[in-house]
Amino acid sequence: MAGTIHKLILTVGFLSMFHAAYSAAQHHSYLRLNELEFTRLPFDIILQAITSLFMIMYAVLNLAGEFKEIRASADLDNKSWETFRNVPSFYTFCHRGQSLLYQNPVST
Q1: Membrane-spanning residues where (predicted)?
Q2: Would you say the C-alpha torsion 73, 74, 76, 80 has a positive or negative sign?
Q3: Is the Cβ–Cβ distance between 16 and 55 less than 8 Å?
Q4: Conformation bin of residue 103: beta by default, left when phi > 0, alpha when psi is -120 to 50
Q5: Contact 32/18 with Cβ under 8 angstroms?
């Protein structure tokens, strides 16, 4: 249920952001048609864009799930040192040390 609410907030936030962008483009073309100088956007468009941004950020942060810590050792705190040394991908059974066993000793 909570995920549905956050998805709805995200959708409303994006629609509101697109509306703010469209309103800004309309305001700019209005100024161009009336040959007025562009100084800044009206306050309501700026407020709508900022509110939409915060709505989107809130929804995305809640939909993203659990974050992991930045520290690389955070996942490794509960492991012992023996676990680090025991890595199956480093096991080698066919190595050149076996051939040393079967060589004839050098006679002098």
Answers
A1: 41-61
A2: positive
A3: yes
A4: beta
A5: no
Q: What is the distance between the alpha carbons of residues 61 and 45, in angstroms, rounded to a whole number?
A: 24
What is the rounded end-to-end Cα distance, in angstroms, of the chain? 85
**Per-residue pLDDT tens over the stretch 10-57:** 999 999 999 999 999 999 999 999 988 988 999 999 999 999 999 999
- pLDDT per residue as tens digits for the range 46-68: 999 999 999 999 999 989 877 77
Whole-number Å distance between alpha carbons of 106 and 101: 13
Residue pair 18/48 in contact by the 8 Å Cβ criterion: no
Whether residue 23 contacts residue 48, with contact meaning beta carbons closer than 8 Å, is answered with yes
16: nearest Cα among 41, 43, 53: 53
